[in-house]
Write a structure and sequence with these properties.
By secondary structure, the chain is α/β, with parallel strands linked by helices. The protein has 12 helices and 14 strands. The protein is 36% helix and 15% strand. Helix 1 packs antiparallel against helix 7 and helix 3 crosses helix 6. It binds pyridoxal-5'-phosphate.
């Protein structure tokens, strides 16, 4: 079996985890949490990192920190994970969608302005599959309308937009450290910002909004979204190798791209001249002319012992959100097309070129092109 993903954990992870156990620091009070926050903030070039238990919690915490509340509208892409809409809804605010670009599968920035209303408070660009959103025009719109920019950088550790790191382009951002991410803590996430007020609000929210003056008195409702010292220990070990991991991802990504170029009707995510992608996932979109959809290819790859995964379904197609009366009669054609026709191939850090050759020949046999 070639798994769709596998973390690489053969550095300092074990040693630091043993240290947690030997010292008894296994909860969020341990010293590695602060250390991981400082190191990742400094890697990104921002002033504050607020570690939380996963990326979904990081989104909600960042929205709270940015002051998003009842009936505020937040503009986001239709093609993304439900976590983005979920955070907004948890704060009684409203997700508003735009479609994505057909080459990068990222938010189509040219559609944002038409969705702005008097209630719009923020834009949430989501950097998809390792590739940045075209941020300069988005930041211009945000400035013109005085909107907060909350970057979802869950999938783009180390990716760059015009030589600036994703996650350091807006007012506040989030990362995920789930096991399939470029660096992992098992489950985990972080909110990043250089705004001291937002950082304080994020810290308070992840820790039940404890009153700093009188413990167990709560003026607002927070969450327990704390990261443990165990998770942070793994994070520190992983972060020390981030450049090596990015190099591996880029090398394998380029290799896949070259091999996939022999197929007519198979498209990869386009790396724009202003972008440095980190190829979080090796993704393909199948042209309709092939007469086969992503689910069928995934099933056939599985029969050959190859793991793969479908793309996100559009937020406007999610029954859980439609039931709430959201996105009625809304259509996002690019999202709908890639949700049906997109999949990602084995993408782990432990993958080798010989395995990619096997994936490519199986894929070729399935789509009958070689
Ligand atoms: C774009 C994006 N945002 C947020 C998340 C949520 O992160 P987590 O799985 O850590 O909750 C993910 C998860 O993969 C994601 O892909």
């Amino acid at each position: 079996m070639i798994p769709v993903n596998e973390p690489l954990l053969d550095g300092m992870e074990k040693k630091l985890l043993i240290e947690c156990i030997e010292t008894g620091w296994i909860s969020s009070d341990g010293p590695f949490v602060n250390d991981f926050e400082n190191k990742f903030a400094s890697y990104l070039g921002v002033d504050y990192g607020i570690a939380v238990c996963n990326g979904t919690a990081a989104i909600e915490t960042a929205l709270y920190a940015a002051g998003i509340s009842k009936d505020d509208e937040v503009i986001m892409p239709s093609f993304t994970i439900i976590s983005c809409a979920l955070g907004v809804i948890r704060l009684s605010a409203i997700p508003v969608l735009v479609d994505v670009d057909s080459e990068t599968w990222n938010m189509d920035v040219s559609q944002i302005e038409s969705r702005i209303t008097a209630k719009t408070k923020a834009i949430m660009p989501v950097h998809i599959y390792g590739h940045p959103v075209d941020m300069d025009p988005l930041l211009e719109i945000a400035e013109k309308y005085n909107l907060i920019v909350i970057e979802d950088a869950a999938e783009v550790h180390g990716a760059e937009y015009k030589n600036r790191k994703c996650g350091n382009l807006g007012h506040i951002s989030i990362f995920s450290f789930y096991a399939n991410k470029i660096i992992t803590t098992g489950e985990g996430g972080m909110v990043m910002t250089s705004d001291s007020n937002m950082a304080e609000r994020a810290k308070s929210y992840r820790n039940l909004c404890f009153n700093p003056e009188k413990r167990f008195l709560h003026m607002e409702l927070g969450q327990n979204y704390r990261m443990t010292n165990l998770q942070a220990a793994i994070g520190i070990a992983q972060l020390s190798r981030i450049e090596e991991f990015i190099q591996i991802k880029r090398r394998l990504g380029e290799y896949y791209k070259k091999k996939l170029s022999v197929f007519d009707g198979v498209k990869c995510q386009v790396e724009k001249p202003w972008a440095k992608t980190v190829y979080w996932m090796y993704c393909i979109e199948l042209n309709n002319s092939l007469g086969i959809n992503a689910d069928e290819v995934i099933e056939k790859l599985e029969e050959s012992g190859i793991g793969s995964r479908p793309f996100f379904q559009g937020l406007h197609k999610q029954p859980a959100l439609r039931k709430m009366g959201l996105f009625e009669d809304e259509h996002y054609p690019v999202t709908e097309r890639i949700s049906d026709q997109g999949l990602y191939l084995p993408s782990g850090l432990t993958l080798k070129e010989e395995k990619i050759d096997l994936v490519i020949s199986s894929l070729g046999a399935i789509i009958n092109k070689i």
